[in-house]
Design a protein that fits this description.
heterotrimer; A mainly alpha (85); B mainly alpha (132); C mainly alpha (88); B: 3 strands; C: mainly alpha; 3 helices; 0% strand
Chain lengths: 85, 132, 88
């Protein structure tokens, strides 16, 4: 059950990242780059979560997970403020 | 505008129309529904560059309101995919005829405030990308 | 230091979620595109994941239940994408 939840979250964020990156490569628009980077950050966060809690629970990746999540949302917010209006 | 657009027309404007030139092209297409328009002919009718006319026609093509024919030039003819879309286009072209400035102001105003929103929304359209 | 840094970063993440959600709410207001409403909802629900983990601090055996909140957030986002493409 936990690995399914974490895996689905990673897959969903990867799907969104791929959609936005693909559109950014074709059409440009810097706001898309920020959104894509944010989703990539969430992919990293979800993969770290999977690795941390399922594959190697004896190790502690909590700080890396926190950094990746914070970085993802800061990038998203920055991009929306800087290029979103 | 004196008569507000229906929700379906509003949605069509938001989703499919991003420039005044597209509105003008749509109006030209619907004025003669049996005619095939090449890009140079449309550019002449719109008094615009061929590149701008081509972009407007391609955008309308993505919105399921035109048929496309491949020849020496791409040709476009007004052909909405269903009756509901035809009604929406009729409503918009009617608004274009009676309240052109208001309609264009709305489209360009939408674009100005929502260019980023439109880009993000377009990124999540699957299967109908600008270039193929 | 490590625990308080994690807490600090969690706070940044939650605020980032809320701020971004407000932007998507504004996009929804301007365009009436339901995609943005679902994104705003998804981001808000995502923030609840971190809020819940910070406030409750579950033990390892039950921690995965809290991550179902995260899954719900992504379901909202995917639902928004599906809804957008379904309408066409």
């Amino acid at each position: 059950m936990p690995s399914i939840v974490y895996g689905l979250c990673a897959a969903a964020s990867l799907f969104c990242a791929a959609l936005v990156l693909s559109h950014y490569r074709r059409s440009g628009g810097r706001v898309l780059l920020w959104v894509a980077l944010a989703f990539c950050g969430l992919v990293v966060n979800n993969l770290l979560l999977f690795y941390d809690l399922v594959v190697a629970p004896a190790l502690d990746f909590s700080l890396l997970r926190s950094i990746s999540a914070a970085a993802a949302l800061v990038l998203l917010l920055f991009g929306l403020i800087w290029d979103g209006v | 505008m004196d008569n507000p657009l229906s929700p379906a027309a509003e949605r069509f404007l938001t989703d499919c129309i991003s420039s005044a030139l597209q509105l003008d092209a749509l109006s030209v297409l619907t004025s003669d529904r049996n005619r095939w328009w090449t890009t140079p002919a449309m550019a002449t009718a719109l008094r615009a560059t061929e590149a701008a006319a081509a972009a407007a026609l391609e955008a309308l093509g993505r919105s399921n309101v035109v048929d496309v024919r491949v020849g020496a030039h791409l040709s476009y003819r007004y052909a909405p995919v269903d009756a509901a879309l035809a009604r929406v286009v009729d409503e918009i072209t009617d608004a274009h005829y009676h309240s052109r400035d208001d309609l264009i102001a709305r489209v360009t105003g939408l674009r100005r405030t929502s260019d980023a929103a439109r880009r993000i929304a377009d990124a999540f359209r699957i299967g109908r990308k600008p270039d193929a | 230091m490590g625990a308080s840094l994690n807490d600090f970063l969690a706070g940044i993440t939650v605020c980032g979620c809320w701020g971004a959600a407000v932007f998507f709410l504004r996009f929804w207001r301007d365009t009436r595109d339901r995609l943005f409403l679902m994104f705003a909802l998804g981001l808000f629900v995502l923030s609840l994941n971190w809020v819940a983990l910070e406030l409750i601090r579950p033990v390892a055996e039950t921690r995965h239940y809290f991550y179902v909140i995260r899954l719900v957030a992504f379901v909202c986002i995917i639902a928004g994408i599906w809804d957008k493409n379904r309408r066409r």
